[in-house]
Amino acid sequence: MAKATTSVSAAGEPRLLGQTVVVIGGSAGIGLETARLARSEGADIVLTARDPKRLEEASRELSARSSAAFDADDAAEVKRFFEGLQAPIDHVLVAAYTRRSQGPMLESTSEEVGQGVGRRVSQVLEIARHAAPKMRAGGTLLLTGGSERTFGREYGITPAAFSVLPPFTAALALELAPVRVNLIQAAFVDTALAASLFADDAAVEARRDELRATLPIRRVVGPADIAALAVHLMTNTAITGATYDIDGGQRLID
Known about the structure:
The chain has 254 residues and is of the alpha/beta class. The chain has 10 helices and 7 strands. Helix 3 runs parallel beside helix 4.
C-alpha cells in the first residue's frame, strides 16, 4: 500500500485534495451526489455504472479522471476494472444497486433467497479483494445499505439482506486494516431509484408527505445528506468498522 491517507489539512484547504475517490454506481442518486461533493473537496473522481450513457454524462459533469461501464455484480468485470486502475487510490464508495428477489420468501426458490441475502456481501468482497492492494493506508471502503426494520410478506428477505451488513462491515474492517471499512444504512432517500419502487408518482408523493409529517427532522432525507456523511467518513481516519443510520429518525418511530 502507498503512503497513508491523512485527515489533517491546512485551514481552508479542500478536505480531499490530492486524493482519489472511486464511486461504484456513480452515475445517479447517492453515488453521483457523493462524487460531486468529493470533487468539490478537491478529489480526483473515478466513476463506474451500468448505464454507459448516464455514466458519460456524469463523467463529463465532474471532469472525472476515468470511468468504466460494467455491472458491479459481475466478479470478472470488477477484477478487470481494478486491475486496469492506476494506483494509488484512497476511497471506494459502493453505491451500486444490488438486485434482490421481492415478495414472500416461500414464493421464491431457496437459491433465489440465498442469493438475495448474500449478493451484496459477495459483491463487496470482490470489490474489496481487488481494490485493497491499490488503496492507501487510512483510506476507506465505504458500503451502503438499507435500514428496513419492518417485517411483512411483501418485504420478503429484504430485512435479512440488510441486517447481515453491520457484522460483515466490522469483520471486513479487521481483515483490510489499515484500510478502513464503514457502512451507511439509509431508509427512504429521495432519488429516482427510490421513486421507481412505487406504483406511480402519486404514491411517491404520498410517501414524501408522510415522512415530512412524521419524521423527527420534518423533511425527507435526500442524497446530499448521504453524501455529507460519506465524505466525513472518508476524511475522519479514526473511524472503522462502524455502521451509521441516516434515516431522519425513522427508526425511532417505526
